[in-house]
Structure formats: C-alpha cells, structure tokens
Amino acid sequence: FTGENIPIWVGDYVLASYGTGAVMAVPCGDQRDYNFASHFNIEIKNIFEGIDISEKAYEDKTAKIVHSDFLSGLNVNKAAKLAIYEMEKKGFGQGKINYRLRDAVFSRQRYWGEPFPVYYVAGMPKMIDHQYLPILLPEVEKYLPTEDGQPPLGNAKVWAWSVLENKVVSNEYIDGETVFPLELNTMPGWAGSSWYFNRYMDAKNPNEFASKEALDYWKEVDLYLGGSEHATGHLLYARFWQKFLFDLDFVPVDEFAKKLINQGMITGTSAFAYRIENTQTYVSKAKIGDHKVQPIHVDVSFVNAQNELDTEAFKAWRLEYKNAEFILEEGKYIVGREVEKMSKSKYNVVNPDAICEEFGADSLRLFEMFLGPLEQSKPWNTAGISGSHSFLKKLWRLYANANDFKGIEGIATKEELKILHKTIKKVEEDIESFSFNTSVSTFMIAVNELGNLKCDKKEVLEPLLVLISPYAPHIAEELWSRLGNVASISFSKFPTFDPIHLIESNKEYPVSFNGKMRFKLELPLDLSKQEIETIVMAHDKTVAQLQGRIPKKIIIVPGKIINIVG
Fold this sequence. Notes:
extended
C-alpha cells in the first residue's frame, strides 16, 4: 500500500520440519515473530493503540490499530477485511477462504483394529479379493511390539496369505511365490467408528454391511450426543464416509444423524506453584512481590481445600523437584488457582473412582447433571458433591419413614398427588429438552415437600422412584426392591402425568377495603359472585373493619380479588 521496502529473511523460521512458504511477520502481534526480530535487531513497529510491547508481543488482537494509514482506528478483524477489500479494488491482491482438514494416518501399529486385506509381493502391496473377506485377527501370545520394533501382529505365527488356497496360513510357508507376508499394521479406531451406526441397523447380516430394506427403514440416527472436540475428529470423518456411501447409492441419506448436541466441557481448577526464575525456590502466592516467577502446574491431589500444598509430596513427585525449597506464608505454601480445561497435562483431573468410593456413583451422577445446562462448559468443584449426597440421604429417609421402606397402600392426599404430578410434568419436559440439571432440582423440591407431609403412600413413592431411577439408578433399584417389587425398576412404566391433579379447587382471595388488603380468605373457585359476597360480608374480620357502616360498592372478580369500597 505504501511502497515501503520490507526486508526478506530466509531461514528455518518455526521448525526445521515445518515446511516451506512465505511468512508475513508482524513482530508486535506474534511472539515467535517478536523473538526472531529481537534476535536479529530488526525494528519492531507497534501497531496497537495503548499497548506496551517493550518486553513481549501482544497476541490478543483486541486492541485498535494505529500507525497504519487508512486502517488506523479499526479493530484487527475489521482492519483485515478492509485491507482485503482495498487490495481487490487496487488489483494487487484477492481474498481467499482456506478450508483446513486434519490429516489422519489410516494405520496403527497395534493389535486391536480391523486388519488390512493386504499382502506383499516383492515389497509391493496387493489386495485380497473381497470374496475372501473378512480376514480375522490371528492369535498372539502378547499384544506388545516385537523385539525388533515390528507391530504386535509381527508376533503372530499364523499370518501369511496363500494365493493358491486364498486363506491365511502359517508364516512357515512364506516362499515369495505362492505364500506372502500380510500387512502388520491395523486400521485406526475411526475406521469402524465412521460407519458403525449403519451396521447397527442390520447387525447380523453376513453378506453386506446393511440391507437396503433395513437402511430405508432406519435411515439415520435420531440424536448424536458428543463433545465438541469430535467436530474435527470422529464426527467429521463419519460425515465424510456417510456422504461417500450416499454418492455410491449405498445409503438413503447423506447425513447420518438428525440432531447433534455437544455436551459442554467439564473444566477443572488447576493448582500452581511459583518458581523463582533460574532457581529451585518456590514462593507462596502472597509472597511473590517483585520476584520474577514461573507458574508450574501442580497435581491437585497434593493440595487441600484451603489451597495448601503438601510440599513433601511435591518434592517426591518428580526428580526435578527433589531439591525444591519453599518461601512460606505463616508456615504454609499457598498455591495459585485457575479454572482450565480438565486435562492430564494440567494435573487437574479428578479421579471418579475415588469419588464413587467416598460418596457413591449416584452422588457423582446427580452432581454432574446438577452442574449446569448440558451444552455449557461447567467448572468442577468436588466440595459441591456433598449437596447431592445429602439429597440422596434425605430420599432414603423418606422411604425409611414410610412404614420401614414398605409404604402403605392407602389413598394419597390431594396435596401429595399434586406434588407427584407436578414432578412428573417437569421431569418429562426436562428429559425431552435435555435439561437434566433442572430435573435434579425438581427432585430435591419434591422430596422436601413430601418429607414435610410425611408421605408414606406407595401410590406416590413408587412413581417418584421411577422418575429418579435414570438419574440415580442404584439407590432407586434398592428402594424399589424394599417396597416389595420383584422385577427391576428398569422394566417399570414411566409415570403418566394427569393434569387434573394440578387444577386448583380453592382460591386464597385477598380481601381489600378501599384498595388496602386487610386479610385473606380461602374460598372454593366454583362459587358465584353473590355467594362470595354473602360469605365475605358475614366474616367477623369484615364486620370488624366496617364497624356497622354500609359499603358503597363491593367489587368481586371471581378467582382474583375482593374489594369493599366506602
């Protein structure tokens, strides 16, 4: 745009193996460019308004552009679009969309996986004819690689192909003329996962992956539920395979699923120790002060609820920390905390086995669902699981108090049935909308209300258990059995919502005098205006308010208000 000369440098810019091509370097906005420019004393022009780049590049790309002619004053995204537009207008550049596809090697050096129908003649691959397929994995003594580094199939004693017999034979017979070595690698996991949903439609068909009749009947999966990280992995390749099969007229639809839901990521709270640069000394968070420190991820199992680090466990953790020294605060080392993706590399993974051991699997299940909406990322906090655990204890007490877990066959009260059917309605709606977190809170409310009513009727307790069973199957199964049921709760029918139990027959009316509410009066909803007036005027609180006066007007709106004027 300006005609200014730009220096061109040639070198292994990022990594020696990165590839070739021109890189437009903007050192103030990319740390690798910044390091390169600093090393060779190249001028680093600052193009970000109000940003200090004296020590490092600014990579957030959120500031406004400056010192950039017609782009000054714009944010990065708008500046990029305008620059492309101006290039196209002046005729020396053109905008282009780059689509990126992650390459994935269709091969694994492991035992488990579909074998390749490939044998080798003088080192050249040949395909086994489809009429002789499938070839099955051979028996091996161990699933580790061979001593000379071959894949595990190199351990197989029967893994060669006879072109005369068209079958797998012993390796002893390899002669390079009629018996040849088979491929030792196997297919990756996504070989099968890219089409398995179609196989489910006709799983026992020995002649084809699925019959046309089965595929036309089932067509596609109703719901695909998976993490967003699958978008560029399994989900992407499965869609490619489906479209490929559709183009060849093997399947009736070009998308394998009707609906996609990405469940949110569970994030973990990482712990950090702060190492003073170029030392083996670690300074507690409040003591950092002017020290230049490097944050080091610490295994969260070494940190207690008060954020105190077990320094001895830390020193024994890895050899590089063996000689660590600590600057403490009040005799303790306090770590830093930060919410990040739960990952082994960040040492913030919570072991579910330990939680199940302490609180039970049902507590863990309920807590996971209670964390928040299915599709949102949710921070993990182990301390919060005690709430789910307490709810299950309360649920247990509700049934224990019901005639020692047996319940009674008596007729449930109107209030008990109202709580039950309100719960059925809400949970059914929640399941259909995948709002499992609000179902859990609905259960908590229902158990509280039924506990307050000392409910002990099987008519209420049994359907409530069926509602809870998908969320907390173990305790539900146990209580179901104690109620006297022989068959598993998983075979029971889902409760049917009856709206009649939510219809109110009474109304609590606010009774006002000259617009000011003085008392409340519960009356049947089916009363006429005249009947309501008669009852209200005879009420002792009305008599006390009027003190013998005759009202000018009585305003009655059935089901809403009563107002006595004058």
